[in-house]
Amino acid sequence: MTRRVPPLVPRMREHAASIFGEMSTLAVETGSVNLGQGFPDTDGPQSVKDAAIRAIQDGRGNQYPPVHGLPELRRAIAEHQRRFYGIELDWTADVCVATGASEAIVATLLALVDTGDEVVMFAPWFDVYAAGISLANGVRREVPLTPGTFRPDVDALRAAITPRTRLLLLNSPHNPTGVVFTREELTAIADVVAEHDLLVISDEVYEHIVFTGHEHVPFATLPGMAERTVTLGSAGKSLSMTGWKVGWATGPSDLIHAVRVVRQHMSFVSGGPFQWAVADGLALPDEHWRSFAADMQSKRDLLSAGLIGLGFAVTPSEGTYYVTTDVGPTAYADGLAFCRDLPSRAGVVAIPQQVFHDDPTNGAPYVRWAFCKRPEVLHEALDRLARALP
Ligand SMILES: *Cc1c(COP(=O)(O)O)cnc(C)c1O
């Protein structure tokens, strides 16, 4: 070959491998129960599926929908924020529909972060955040959550802020740990944000998967935060339709305008018929949202109790699809070694936390297990673990 031009820009090389790709390949090769990837194995509501089918049949959304999202969906998103949180939005200017929250994350970072700007986030972080910051030529600064409890260390956050810090990337309910930040924690974080005049991306895609005794507090509802926060939501997570790739960003019109400018040049539009269906889904009655969270909570209970029974140290999951264990009681040096061995040894796949850190020592002993699966699948995984791990 005479071509010597390297194909991948240097700033993206560290993002070449994905743990989800590696572990899903292992899952297929070994016929493992896959508790690695975070998607439910039961679809969202039938009425929402029917709405998508109707939209296709009626010719609604089969051609390019409006660039920043179907008006009906933007109205439904604004109404959802008002109904659940008392947040008042102008649907014409304060809402932007995206190809999943993933696109909204990257578009928002590209819109708000310039070359050399620093972005602070708690570790472990979601892998799209790190890649998105690199795409924007930004610099990431991680602040480890307290090992074991995974509570945010606000003094450490304050210490990580420099004159170059432009934005804080927050995620609660938190993937991968399963913690839900309390109002007190978020208020202390908001003080740091105000002190340093930061922008905020608040990734709240698990807003409806919060368990008894815990509360989802949207960051934008804290005093002074609405004007500086872009909030992200996802129909994938909230309506259990991860393949539909409908997400959104909401916030003050000047920030959302910036996101729109960038995002329109990414996917332009997507998911026309799905946007109609998601508009219907967001208006489902309170009972639906209660039973959705309760169902996920029963799955959390099943998997958590099983893992405790096997001798794992489990950090209680307060929300999301995930529960975290410490591999300490096993013979393994760390979570990565454990997870690489587990498919062939036990026929189960889980995700090591350390790959979501710049400094892997902080996440070394921890493993993320997804419980958003049918009870029989969780039982099968636990049976396999019990047979393989004496
Ligand atoms: C799943 C997930 C997303 C992405 O949502 P999509 O709508 O599927 O793109 C974003 N943030 C977190 C923390 C997630 O777990």
UniProtKB/TrEMBL annotation:
The entry's keywords: Aminotransferase, Pyridoxal phosphate, Transferase
Cofactor: pyridoxal 5'-phosphate
CDD domains, per the entry: AAT_like
Location of the Aminotransferase class I/classII large domain: 33-384
Molecular function in Gene Ontology: transaminase activity
UniProt keyword Oxidoreductase, yes or no: no
Protein name per the record: Aminotransferase class I/II-fold pyridoxal phosphate-dependent enzyme
Species lineage: Bacteria, Bacillati, Actinomycetota, Actinomycetes, Sporichthyales
